[in-house]
Amino acid sequence: MYCVKLPRKKGVKYTPLVFLHGALGSHRHWMYQANYFCSTHTCYVPDLPGHGRSGGVILATIEKFAAVVEDWLHSMNLPPVVLLGHSMGGAISLQVALNRPDLVKRLVLVGTGAYLPVSPKFLNTLREGKMDLHFITRHVFAKTTDAELVRQAEKELDCQSPSLAYRDFNACNNFDIRDKLHEIKQETLVVCGQDDRLTPVKLNRELAHALPHARLEIIEDAGHMVMLEKPEKLNGIIEKFLE
Fold first, then answer.
1. 50-95: pLDDT as tens digits
2. Do 123 and 210 contact (CB within 8 A), yes or no?
3. Which SS3 state, helix, strand or coil, does residue 20 take?
4. Which DSSP letter does residue 61 get?
C-alpha cells in the first residue's frame, strides 16, 4: 500500500497512529489530523488497495481490506497502534481489532457503525455505471458546510470510477459485526457529525453503546466528512482521548 509517513517531531515515544480512509477516499482525507498529531506521534496515512496512489485489485469485502491492513501492520513491525478509521475505514478498523487485537491499542471511529446499510437503489445505480456526484455530496456534507469544500469534493469524486464506488459501498453494505462487538476490548472513541446522513448519529450511538469501553462525541454543524468540515474540533477531541 502507498503510505504517507509523518515521523514525530519530538523525542518522546508515543503510540503510532494509523489513519484509514473511507469509501472512495484516500490518505488526503486525514491530512489535517496527521499534520497536527505528528508533533507527538509517528503518523501513518495509507491509501487502501485500489485507492489513491495504491495499486492492486479493488477488494470486495471489509474482511479482505482488514487482512491487507493486518499484513501491512505486521510487516511494519510496529508496536500496537491507535487505529483511526473513517466510515469504511472505521469498519476495517473494527474488523482488524476483532481479528488481531494484539496489533491494536486503541480505536478512534469517525462516522461509522457495526453495520453500514446502503440504499439498494443507490447500489443499483452504481452497478449500472452511473454516479450522481450531487447526490453523494448532499448526503456527505452538512448544509452549513463551506460551498468551496463541497465543490472540491465533487471535483475529486468526478475522477473516481463507478466500479470502485460500487465495490466500496457494496462491501460496506455486506458488513455486519453487531453480534461480535462485545469481543472488542480496546478503549474506543466514537465520533459523529450531528448532520451525518450516511452514518447517522443513531448508528454511531448504537456502536458506542455496544462496545465495552467506548464513548461517543457528537460534533455540531458537521456531516459525514467531519475530518474536513471541523478539523480543529475533531483534533481537540482526539487529543483529549489520546491523553
1. 998 998 888 999 999 999 999 999 999 999 999 999 999 999 999 9
2. no
3. strand
4. S
The three-class DSSP label of residue 185 is coil
Give the Cα separation of 12 and 17 in Å (integer). 14
Rounded CA-CA distance 141/144 in Å is 8
Closest CA to 238 of 80, 25, 19: 19
Domains of the chain: 3-242 (3.40.50.1820)
Cell numbers given for 88? 469504511
Nine-digit cell string for 70 = 493486518
Q: Report whether pLDDT(49) > 90.
A: yes
**Nearest alpha carbon to residue 107 among 120, 91, 124:** 91
* 224, pLDDT greater than 80: yes
Amino acid at 132: D
Between CA 186 and CA 99 the distance in angstroms is 13
- If you average pLDDT over residues 213-225, what whole number do you get? 97
In whole angstroms, what is the distance from residue 102 CA to residue 180 CA? 17
- 108's CB contacts (< 8 A; 6+ apart) are 82, 83, 84, 85, 188, 189, 191, 238, 241
DSSP 101: G
Q: How far apart are the first and last CA of the chain?
A: 29
Q: Cell numbers for 193, please give them.
A: 457529525
What's the rounded Cα separation, in Å, for the pair 56 and 223? 31
Close Cβ partners of 147 (under 8 Å, ≥ 6 residues apart): none
pLDDT digits 0-9 by tens, 12-25: 567 899 999 999 99
Any idea what DSSP says for residue 224? Answer: S
pLDDT reported for residue 161: 87
pTM of the complete model beyond 0.90: yes
